Amino acid sequence: MNYDLTSYVSFTMLLEKLTKKMEATRMSEVLVVCPMCRSEQPITNLLTAQSNQNVIYTCPTCQYEKRNIPTKKG
Ligand SMILES: [Zn+2]
Fold first, then answer.
1. How many whole angstroms separate alpha carbon 15 and alpha carbon 54?
2. For labelling alongside 33, which of 10, 51, 60, 62 has CA 20 to 30 A away?
């Protein structure tokens, strides 16, 4: 199961989808395609969760970085 960042309108939407997916499978099995260099990496190698619930996506191949902006829910 691969996820291409470029196919999502927003990074936050992708994260929400990934979170739901990760509840049903192991995180290491979820692959994400880098929008810059097209390399596939396990989600566990790419996302860094911060204490403020912000999540940083960093590609280890090309150093592409993207941050989500926490959204208000409810
Ligand atoms: Zn990359």
1. 11
2. 51
